[in-house]
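Action item from last week, closing it out:
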Amino acid sequence: MSSDKGISKIKAITGNKAATIGASLCKPDLIAAYPITPQSSVVEGLASMIANGELDSNMVQVESEHSAMSVVQGAVMAGGRAFTATSAQGLALMFEPYFRMSTLRLPMVMALATREMTSPETVWSGHQDAVSVRDAGWIQIFVESNQEILDMVIQGYKISENQNVLIPVNICYDGFYLSHLTERVEIPDSKEVDKFLPKYNPEHVILNPQQPMAVDPLTSGEYLMEYRHTHLEAMQNALRVADEVDTEFAKNFNRAYGGVIDTYRCDDAEFVIVTMGATTGTARVAVDMAREKGISLGLLKVRYIRPFPAEKIREVLKEKKGFVVVDKNVCFGWNTGALYMEIKAAISDLCEETCSLPVIGGLGGADISLKELLNSIDILVSSAKTKAGQLETYWLRNDL
């Protein structure tokens, strides 16, 4: 939903530009920048805003993504709000400080323009980079549109800096399909964003030369157990906080995304198609077309893969005859994708009664066509008449 409430202007912009504007509206004290396709123009845009006097922030040009994450760690520990962005091999290179960022419980937002991992060499879209680090302790939000990119950067800081959370956030959006393509985006008024997201006021850690402290000292097992326990508790807190922040955002800007999940025509549906990211728009059309054919289909959009909204997903899928899960990644240990695995674990006791179809497509920027989605739905519906349980993985190969 949307209206003119809180809008400064409306522009046709790319997803990367939406991330740039969203970050600038949050007024980060420091931005660490290292380019990698398809993310590069996010930090390039922020550098231009700083150079033109449009943004009062410190830009640090680093020699690698490992350094980028290390620099923002220091900024957040010193009491600042920080931002960076990356993709694929850049995310892999920063893995060590990426893991430390979350386990030190340092709040920030990083845009992640998702991309396949090499090899074979590719720069195109897929979710493999993001899902490969889903258990590194970060909150991971997958978005559908350029508008959602901008809005979730803002919401991301609000969630991350909540004293009951204090976990960094990834805003994950499909490389090229969103990062480089243009959509209509409502840009919030800066003063309204300031009201919604006040200046960061850290309470748990601030580096101070006058009061030296050890950061990340060698820690025994008993203490490490406590660290992990409280981190997991904070992750569960984030499920509630995310819903609350989305509700508050809607009151201020008249746009809501449903919280940790969103649904479309699910209430009376017998079958459900489950998506994550930019594929959702195509799937929504597929739902309407399936309904016209007499198939009672609904859509479940998973917005947060970490923390995983297991209870809400279970509530949507219980008593359904079957569901399709569309993954833009592979899980190398299983012949499925990561989202399918997560959902099966969440509803394990329902699986014997429910027909489920794992679908893999969109790897390396391959198109996920409406025709192929409708084919997967037909396979599910026809199979559900005679059997339950997991069907063989369906690969969306189009004309290959």
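Closing note: The chain has a mean pLDDT of 95.
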